[in-house]
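Give me structure tokens for this 309-residue protein.
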Amino acid sequence: MNIIRGISKFNRFPQGCALTIGNFDGIHLGHRAILASVMAKGAESGIPTAVMTFDPQPREYFAADQASPARLTRFREKVSLLKTEGVSDVICLPFNEALASMSAHDFVKELLVDGLNVQHLVVGDDFRFGRGREGDFAMLESLGQQYGFEVVQTPVLDFGKERVSSSRIRVALEQSDFALAESLLGRVYSMEGRVAHGDKRGRTIGFPTANIFLHRDVSPVIGVYAVKVHGIEAEPVTGVANIGTRPTIDGTRSLLEVHLFNFAREIYGAHVRVEFFHKLRDEKKFESFDMLKQQIDRDAQAARDYFNN
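Here you go.
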């Protein structure tokens, strides 16, 4: 997979490309329907399939002074999922003042036509673009006819009579409805990261943890969970995870800590994927380290009971 960061790195596709545009946070079933369509167009024409996305996301840029919505996926996770779907190129543009002030016509002409030589453009039904969100599907169709590319609109995908969306998944995770989140995503919700050295406090109370820094401003899940970890054994390893700031030790940086069951090998530097299955409790501050240890004992047993091991 090729990753293109920034407009200056554009490399016009000689034979053209099939393209879709969006945030694609979470790569849920609705996104996958769009990706399936763009993949089919690319295969039909024998050209690369590309996804254009943004960092920061437009919503984050325009609400910079407000709390950003939790990202379901970091950029690296998003790229990994897009690669799994068969996408050949990911174009990540910095959403800044220049991009925000670009007219809808210039966005199409300069970026899509002159920059990427788009031949097929696949978008969702609610896609808007350009300064002040002035561009819509009708404008895309008109510009497609003018510049010689096809525009394909994908229909709304519903689940349980409601639209599949990243926002709906965030709400499901906030409410610890992992079954709904899995249904909307088409997979168990997970986070990825590299195991890093921590303060090793867990070792002193018999609960060593694999520490994974979140690299995101807001986490969609906070608390203690029954989890499975992929990437360290042939089969996933069950465990109990805390995700939060660790208030008992006056932590300030969000961290994912996982205590793995029946596992003792050092895994520093390993890139792992942590799947969330069940919330055990909210994160809380304990009056003493000993009280925290007692609670972790109960949490670990509750997670073992959940997985029946």
